[in-house]
Automatic annotation (TrEMBL), chain B:
Domain ABC transmembrane type-1: 72-262
Location in the cell: Cell membrane
Protein name (record): Carbohydrate ABC transporter permease
PROSITE patterns: ABC_TM1
Length: 438, 276
């Protein structure tokens, strides 16, 4: 065998090895996600990741509740249909504790800086020191209000209003003849709809879901105060048919100029200030969620996050994708393509130190303050045995809260009194919790 | 003696029929109109009817973001496949029940129908585990079989009612002429029952087309039909009504067109059986 032959053999061998290696690397992953604006944007930018890595993504986009149903079935049966799934701060701690998710403590890209994540958001996705999901966008809730209507009413919105002020301002701004409602808030039944709003609001009134022995607390004076205040305020100054209004319905009303104030997710700020969709884009101000002076505000905390189910067989590729989608580079990519105002908010400290972002997003400061003021470990004024602000991080919560939400929505529709709704809620929650073994 | 129909009565009934028809059709028409609006116009108040900037951008956005041809193919395969498979099994079954009933035929029929009363979610986990065991998750064949099983009671019941209208003497005559059982079913019974079978097929294709529990939960990408396609355009945080409308129109258009063309058979079939 001469040198030439040896060389040729080696070259062919090396070529084969390289070929095999790259063939082994090109994988197909399936990602389940929701149809929210930021996610749709991720989907449209993902081909850049596909080109850079040679991998291919199958997208499964679903409505939030359908997604939850799909993903829960898959994950609890070890179905292995998905490699990356979009989950929230409610699922991450429960599923993480069940060993259903892959730890993201290691194996992420080197420049994926975990310490840069906002502490409140990171804490909500961590169980016993293990990070189970990477936040894609984070949100709290805050007050969005019409600056022109506030001025017309002769009032000035403080940065940190009280519930009493909100109620009075709502009554002053309400102008039924011109179809302007002082306050818009969620009324549609659902644990992620009206109960998110009411649970967070209850925290600021000193109420809690359970005491330290897991006893339901709907018979407490604090819950009665919360619900009565909510019903009175909505009846005085809320829109007609408020019991059917969720996020999207209120967004529509606000963009049409029919709400004086709207208390909801911080992510709505970029929608209502977007002149393409909103008729009131240049007349919106922001304030922290209200309190009652007890030391807790009525704002929640949520992070749409990407996680890897334990049944996935392509963990490395999935981690590579998550590193890309939730890393700092992605933020810059969105800014380049769609402008800074459209980057996914609420996950990284560095974003809020970026002057270009602060200049482009008038709501940035208030979003950060809202997120930072949320404490999922100590959500209420009183001590609680659970984590979560607008939810209780136990598997039974979604079912219970949806039923309670129906009772409260019914009360808003005028079909039952606050007392009747609270009594029924107390009975129902106690029964369900006993059945669950608490 | 035939009843006299005065022109006034005629006009009144026609107007009423049109009114009911339009009322039922209104949601589809509104979805159709919304699908050509911009997202801002879609939520405008007061609502805009016909005078707006018609745009097809929602359709191009929907097409760009998802694999419509695959979803459509899957829907057709699943709906038609499950119905034909069901007919294949139900024709002999209904023949037996209609022409050679046993002591317990009525009970069997009722028992079959009773399976429709079980909430589907009750068997979700067993079915997912079985599908996983056989490695058929996210496959068309799984959905063809599942939807066939789900609709089989209805197919059998419908065919049974149609077959009962056919005089047994005709089949007897065929038998006396030496027709085998197979030939009796294929050449004598089936041609007489064509309107009934046709309407059974049409109705079951529609049922399978609209099935939105199993088709969403047992599929991910490869076998995902139009039901999953629509679900992907509903958004909890953000207003995409125009795009959702465009996706809905694309999903219902094929079945709607099929319904229009086969209206005659559908109505004749539905009024031919027990409820004539």
């Amino acid at each position: 065998m001469n040198t030439k032959q040896i060389l040729r053999g080696t070259t062919v061998g090396l070529g084969l090895m390289v070929g095999l290696a790259s063939a082994a690397m090109a994988e197909e992953i399936t990602i389940a996600t929701v149809n929210n604006g930021d996610m749709v944007r991720m989907q449209s930018l993902a081909p850049q990741w596909e080109q850079a890595t040679g991998n291919k993504i199958n997208w499964v986009v679903l409505e939030e509740n359908v997604l939850r149903q799909n993903v829960t079935t898959d994950i609890s049966t070890g179905g292995g249909q998905y490699d990356v799934m979009t989950i929230g701060t409610y699922e991450a701690p429960i599923w993480g504790a069940n060993d259903w998710l892959v730890s993201l403590n290691d194996g992420m890209a080197e420049d994926w800086d975990a310490d840069d994540l906002l502490p409140a958001i990171r804490g909500g996705l961590t169980v016993d020191g293990t990070l189970y999901a990477a936040p894609f966008y984070g949100e709290s809730s805050m007050v969005m209000y019409r600056t022109d209507l506030m001025e017309k009413a002769g009032l000035e919105m403080p940065e940190a209003p009280t519930w009493q002020f909100i109620r009075e301002a709502a009554a002053a701004m309400t102008d039924r003849d011109n179809d302007i409602n002082g306050i818009c808030a969620r009324g549609k039944a659902g644990w992620g709809e009206n109960m998110a709003f009411l649970s967070a609001m209850a925290n600021s009134f000193g109420a809690r879901w359970f005491d330290m022995d897991w006893n339901a607390q709907f018979d407490s004076p604090e819950w009665k105060e919360t619900l009565t205040f909510y019903l009175d305020m909505m009846n005085e100054s809320g829109p007609a048919g408020a019991a059917n209004n969720g996020f999207n319905e209120n967004l529509t009303l606000f963009q049409q100029g029919k709400c004086g104030m709207w208390i909801d997710a911080t992510v709505a700020a970029s929608f209502v200030t977007n002149p393409a969709d909103s008729t009131v884009a240049d007349k919106v101000g922001f304030a922290l969620a209200p309190d009652t002076g007890l030391g807790k505000r009525g704002n929640w905390l949520w992070a749409w996050s990407l996680a890897i189910p334990a049944s996935s067989e392509k963990v490395d590729v999935a981690k590579d994708f998550i590193s890309w989608a939730t890393g700092k580079g992605y933020t810059e990519l969105v800014a380049e393509n769609e402008g800074w105002a459209n980057v996914p908010p609420g996950t990284r400290t560095s974003l809020y130190e970026n002057q270009a972002y602060l200049d482009a997003a008038p709501f940035a400061e208030m979003t950060l303050k809202s997120i930072n003021s949320a404490d999922p470990q100590n959500p209420s004024v009183q001590e609680v045995p659970y984590t979560g602000i607008q939810f209780v991080a136990i598997p039974e919560f979604a079912g219970i809260a949806t039923q309670v939400g129906q009772l409260f929505s019914d009360a808003l529709a005028g079909n039952r009194s606050a007392d009747e709704a609270l009594n029924a809620a107390q009975e129902l929650t106690t029964e369900e919790m006993e059945a669950a073994g608490y | 003696m035939a009843r006299a129909i005065t022109p006034r009565k005629k006009i009144m009934w026609t107007a009423l029929a049109w009114g009911i028809g339009l009322l039922i059709f209104f949601p589809i028409m509104w979805t159709f109109l919304t699908s050509f609006k911009s997202e801002a116009t879609a939520i405008s108040d007061p609502p805009v009817w016909f005078i707006f900037d018609w745009t097809t951008e929602n359709y191009s956005a929907v097409l760009a973001r998802s694999n419509y041809p695959l979803a459509l193919t899957n829907s057709i395969v699943i709906a038609v496949g499950s119905t034909l498979l069901g007919i294949l099994i139900a024709v002999p079954a209904a023949w037996a029940m209609a022409f050679v009933p046993g002591k317990r035929t009525k009970d069997v029929l009722l028992w079959m129908l009773s399976t429709k009363m079980l909430p589907a979610v009750g068997v979700l986990y067993p079915l997912v585990l079985i599908a996983k065991y056989f490695g058929v998750m996210d496959s068309r064949i799984l959905l063809v079989v599942i939807l066939m099983l789900i609709n089989l009671p209805i197919i059998v019941w419908m065919l049974y009612t149609y077959f009962r209208e056919i005089p047994g003497e005709i089949l007897e005559a065929a038998r006396m002429d030496g027709a085998s059982l197979k030939n009796e079913i294929i050449y004598v019974l089936t041609p007489m029952a064509v309107p009934g079978i046709a309407s059974t097929i049409l109705l079951n294709i529609i049922l399978a087309w609209n099935e939105a529990f199993w088709t969403i939960l047992l599929t991910t990408v490869n076998a995902a039909p139009l039901t999953k396609f629509i679900a992907s355009f509903s958004a909890p945080e953000g207003l995409f009504y125009a795009k959702l409308s465009a996706a809905s129109i694309m999903a219902i258009a094929p079945i709607l067109i099929m319904g229009w063309f086969s209206q005659k058979q559908l109505v004749r079939g539905l009024t031919f059986g027990a409820v004539k």
